[in-house]
Amino acid sequence: MSGVKKYFYFSGLPRSGNTLLSSILNENLDIHATGHSFLPDLFFSMKKTEYNSNRFKNYPCHNNLKNVYKNIIPNYYKNHNVQYIIERGDWITPFNINLLKQVVPNKLKIVILIRDVFEIIKSYLKLCEDNPQFFYNKKYESLDHSTLFTDEIETKVDLIMDKGEYIHTTLYSIYQLKKNNLLKNFLLIDYKDLVSKPKTTIDKIYNYYGIKPFNHSFKNFKKTPIYDDSILGASMHKIMKDKIKKRNYNIELSENIINKYKHLNEILYKWVI
């Protein structure tokens, strides 16, 4: 590796090609593209401790603490001998955007992955169907079924789309970026483009990050992020390693589900135009 290591980021909606994107980028030996990082959780915990610590309030050392924050990411990836770290994480919340602006040594650049909301829902339902121990199945089983007014599929969809769940929080973060005129600073990539025209899409990402183009093969992915999905009850990060292909789900959504959530698709694609 030559020169100073640079740090870029990607985030976005779940089931939108995050693991696939890391696997593609990792074919380039100048890049380390990560799995879903816990660093946003670490920063949040540290900030929470800072705000709540009477000891720190009693003896505040702001410059010292600022040095700690600035060195967390470089030290975390110190042993990766590459030119570019491209980290996946929940970085697009307003809190995390402001934090990254303070700690990233180079210009802040984030790719945001999006996907048709109903395709995301179908992907989750397929995980429910194939994995009895999947956490949304367990959530459903824990409900008092005598109080439910919807069938099993619709109830699970409501759980998936609930406030505080990953889809909702990510859509809210994208809304905040749009509201505050910040979305234009980031690159939005639609899952359908990543799988249907991967070369054009990856070239666009390289251009945005300012990385020299690389001739990807788009098959035989050997450096896929390694997850322990046993804690989730389903293999959520499994990809086809020999090719890029859009997954088709033989799942029909009821008219009630479509009517309940179609506004989210309409709003999402209105935001990104």
Q: Low-confidence segments, ≥5 residues, pLDDT <50? A: none
**Alpha-beta classification:** alpha/beta
Strand content: 5-15%
CATH architectural grouping: 3-Layer(aba) Sandwich
Strand order of the largest sheet: 2-3-1-4-5
CATH superfamily: P-loop containing nucleotide triphosphate hydrolases
Radius of gyration: 20 Å
Please, how many domains? 1
- How far do the termini sit from each other? 38 Å
According to CATH, what is the topology? Rossmann fold
Mean pLDDT: 89
Task: Report what the structure shows.
The structure is a single chain. The chain has 273 residues and is of the alpha/beta class. The protein has a single domain (6-272), classed as P-loop containing nucleotide triphosphate hydrolases (Rossmann fold). Helices cover 49% and strands 10% of the residues. The protein has twelve helices and five strands. A five-stranded parallel beta sheet has the order 2-3-1-4-5, with helices on both faces. The chain is globular. The mean pLDDT is 89.
